[in-house]
From TrEMBL:
Residues 7-363 form the FAD dependent oxidoreductase domain. PROSITE patterns: FAD_G3PDH_1. InterPro entries: DAO_C, DAO_C_sf, FAD-dep_OxRdtase, FAD/NAD-bd_sf, G3P_DH_FAD-dep. One of its GO terms (molecular function) is glycerol-3-phosphate dehydrogenase (quinone) activity. Keywords: FAD, Flavoprotein, Oxidoreductase. It comes from Natronospirillum operosum. GO terms for cellular component: glycerol-3-phosphate dehydrogenase (FAD) complex. This is Glycerol-3-phosphate dehydrogenase.
Amino acid sequence: MTQTTYDLLVIGGGINGAGVAADAAGRGLSVALVEADDLASATSSWSSKLIHGGLRYLEHYEFRLVREALGEREVLLKVAPHLVTPLRFRMPHHKGLRPAWMIRIGLFMYDHLSKRTTIEGSKSIRFDPAGPIRPEYVRGFEYSDCRADDARLVVMNAKLAEHKGAEVLTRHTVTRARREQGLWTVTIQPENGNMFTVQARSLVNAGGPWVRKVLDSFDNVRIDKTVRLVKGSHIVVPRIHDEEQAYILQNSDGRIVFVLPYLEDYSLIGTTDVDYSGDPRTPEIDDDEINYLIAITKDYFRCDLTPGDIVWTYSGVRPLMQGEREDDEDASRVTRDYHFEVEDEHGKAPLLSIFGGKLTTYRKLSQAAVSALKPWFPGMSEPWTDQAVLPGGENMTHPQPYAEELCRRYPFLTPKTARRLAFSYGRRAELWLDDAQQEADLGERFGALYAAEVTYLMEEEWAQTVEDVIWRRTKAGIDMSRQDRERLVTFMAAQSGAGSERGPASRLASA
């Protein structure tokens, strides 16, 4: 770290921590972001990959959250066009569940709670008898939300923070924090190195599932609030339908399951809601969750899906805001809203802790968190991130035209590869494609990845291990052979002296 005292030290490198760091750095604060593992190494990389208003939250009367989330869809489409793209959803009408009139009212509200400029509205539809849906589902509804690359959204927020002057330290653990003479003294333990201390005028605890653990490592902190940990699991199977739309399936228990087109060749099915008490770093799907997701999919689709069809699974732990009377409430009904707890000591050294939140509203949450610190930093500038294009999204409205541009500029790229690069890196792909004239100029291949690409990820995007590269910076691990992974370990070790392969918080069926 280049400074001994920072205006703000952010603990946690998930979407909220990265968002807060970027927002604060852009308002003129000196910022350090400290993450114990890799960026997006927990909850923020194991989501349903959606930016959505939360249609079912309307049933729980969470109108403020839905309105804010709907508004953020439009903002993120503008500031992250390479990572957030529109997606149409189809909902087959199940006559035994929510009545059609209720769904129409819900969709009307979904269309009008917030201003839409690029998102299409909802409509009623009839299903093709020869289509992928079972014949008993004749009618349905269609509406819009957005798909997203969750982990890359985190990394690009960290890059934005860095561009604004913030320092980003991964694999550094905050082991203790205490107030001394109006400042925080923070003890930091690198993964490989000697412990050191820095000072900060304020702290933000964006620990996600570890928000309580972080608080417990502080001296004399008077916050007793906690979070409820809920596991959400997903399965990935070969594509079960050829349509470009996603599906939202109602279940008799009141929950919903998404079936999403994923990585062109697959369907992503999820999620579950299961209370969780284990290590948030290592959740795994269980047989009950697998059977649950398969059963609801087969209830709606003409397919013979079995556990043997699964090519990949992943699970994440959501840190949901725990209400006073929610201990016995079904996990799927617990709010996805967020809450801040702020305390200081004699008007100095504030600590802001974040409880709850969801991927869609990270930018709004981050803006509100930094604004909450303004009494201690009256000179900070005004909010700005609603106009700040994330790195890679410059001069772009959608990745597909840029993919076509890449094919023209680099004719050795296949259309599928060009789409992968456009939807992952946006214009930052040019930083490592550079002036390549042929594929060989990009170096050794590791499955879908090029050596030049991996080197870029290590030098520019904080990737240190194979897991960082193939499960977060990219999703190349799903198609990568064991031999390619082993060669990638060797290559990364030669590049940095590290390059270990850690076990991901997922299960690859072919591994």
